Amino acid sequence: MLFSHADGRRASGASSRWLAFGVATALYVMFGVVNSSVAPLIVPVSQELRISAAEMGAVLGAWQLVYVGTSYFVGLGLDRFGMRRSIAAGMLLIAASAALRGLAQDFATLLAAVALFGVGGPTLSIGMPKLVAGLFGERERPTPLGIGISAPFVGTMLAFGLTNSVLVPLAGSWRGVMFLDGAIVLGLTVVWWQVGPRDAPAAARKASADGPASERMGLRELLRLRNVAIAVSGAALLFTVGHGGNNWIARMLQGHHYSAVEAGYWAAAANGLSALGVLTIPRLVPAGRRRFVLAGLVTTLSAGVLGLAVLDGLPLALAVLAFGAARTAPTGLFFLVLMDTPGVGSRHIGAVGGAFYAVAEVGGFGGPFIIGALLDQFGSFVPGVGVLAALGLLLATMVAFLKEPRPSR
Question: CA 394 to CA 295: how far, in whole Å?
Answer without folding.
Answer: 10
